[in-house]
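Researcher: Structure for this, please.
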Amino acid sequence: MSKHKNFINIFITLVLLCTSLLAGCGSEEKAAPPGKTSVVVSFNAMKELVQAVGQDKVAITTLIPDGTEPHDFQPTPKDMKALHKAALFVYNGAGMESWTDTAIKAASNEKLQVLEASKGIALIELSDPDEIKEHGQYDPHTWLSLANAQIEVKNIADALSAVDPKNKDFYQKNAQSYNKQLAELLAKYQGKFARLPQKNFVTGHAAFAYLCRDLGLTQSSVEDVFASGEPSAQSLAQLAEFCKEKNVKTIFVEDTVSPKTSLTLAKEVGAGTQPIHTLESSAGKLTYLQRMEENLEAIYKSMK
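Model: Predicted structure, token format:
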């Protein structure tokens, strides 16, 4: 176990003590409104998928604030209290949220149902020994795939049906309708990308391997899967050479990763930069489907 994970576990253990002391003193966290199921989610993408399935039958609390990397998040006493009152906790899993097991224990909620939304997805194994040692064996960015999202939506519908069986038909119908939209968007871009001879794109960090698997694309990145550390001069030089060789005209920049190195790379190879959504944070009124379509269209145009 890494020092980072050890620190998180120690931190949450201390939070558990604080939560226990606060439990008898009232709570600022309000119970879910009548007729709604209380659901806590880890970060924004999970919120959007739960909302698509649960709609007006769920009251959702998101633990990780916008702009915070889920890898580095540390739950607070308020987060523990939210979990203590919830009926369902939905997190992505696959190594994305290393703190969940300890947080669930700290919440001390015997009735809490827990869903790892990525269960059943064929996970992509990492190859870098340092990444595996620090973060685990798999790439956790499963939700950035329209095919994977359909599995996560089905898992969410089943979990909501289990905690709120009287509304099972409602959840299952919503999941089927939403998955139809996901499948249609995927089919649209599978067709568009299939007609392109060039299928390479460059991002700030390697978050899009599952999207690449959906569409037969190849990503290269400034930083690794977990956007940890600075790239070496040698690796950056190799990436610059790759960009020139493949005539890459766009470097995509994520909102949760520092753009400094990406901007330097873009300047060196004569490329522009463009934002790309990782959906770890919200984006105003833009939905999961809208942002995924924006991503796909931007990547498509960069390859033409």
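Researcher: Any notable elements?
Model: Residues 168-194 form the longest helix (27 residues). Strands lie at 37-41, 58-62, 88-91, 113-116, 200-205, 218-223, 250-254, 272-276.
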